[in-house]
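[INFO] parsing input record for Glycosyltransferase
[DEBUG] input buffer:
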Amino acid sequence: MVFSGFIITYNRSNLILDSISKVLSQSVSPDFLWIIDNSSDSLTLEAVDSLKSKKVKYHHMGSNAGPAGAAAKGLELCAADKADWIYWGDDDDPPTDPLIFEELFSIINFLPNNVKVGQVGLVGQLFDTQKGKIKRIENEVLNREFVLVDNIAGNQIKIINSNVVASNLLPNPKLFFGFEELDFDLKMKNRGFLSFISGELMFKQRVKYNTLNKTSNFNKHYQNNENWRDFYSNRNLLYILWINQMYLGFFNRLTVLLVKPIFNLRYGLKSFFSQVKFALRVFVGFLKLLNA
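[DEBUG] output buffer:
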């Protein structure tokens, strides 16, 4: 088995060496590791070169392609290097325990050979297609050896089966940022590739971060604050729902987007018009993305 990986980074040369170290210190360590650099300077390249490691490879995107474009390139490069399994990582979310990769591979080895595994990961979510929302997995479900999920976020130790890439499935670079992993995971699901997490590992994460009784916060991107993160997240979610023919979910999310300004009237006309402007910007962005 050839195990490879990539780490997406953007102007975080101060973090990249620690992230690389934590990935390569895993008990099951990647045979090689690509650094996919969206940075606007050469500091990350200088940091990577200082390692003088044959395991670590470097690719500069030329411009900021966002997590979506960088992940697509990382998967392509790892597949071209004949990897069987590919770690998808972020520069600021390295594995926190040296046994995580080993434990995730134990899920793959435990599953029957006839199960078409697309990916495994540390923390997963379900997706409510009718409401167009990420859905929290109940604690009681996590008592299983492995749990079938719809989505594993990029910062939750995704390990991808290279057969997915061989099937011409890649993240959509047009999404740039926001739910690009959800789009990719739903495309996998539509092709019959399944996503699994370790119930035990996810339960331990909730204990560690004291979130056992926490209500879902996965939908924070729906708050429609007027900033670039919320713009991309709302725009992309509308796009993902539409192209996957999840029309009820699409109209639910669109309704929330359009009704939010009315509720903001209680904060004054300035807040109302700000939300109207944001909603129109998101919808126009969705239409442009659809026709791109």
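[INFO] The chain has two domains: 3-208, 220-290.
[INFO] shutting down worker
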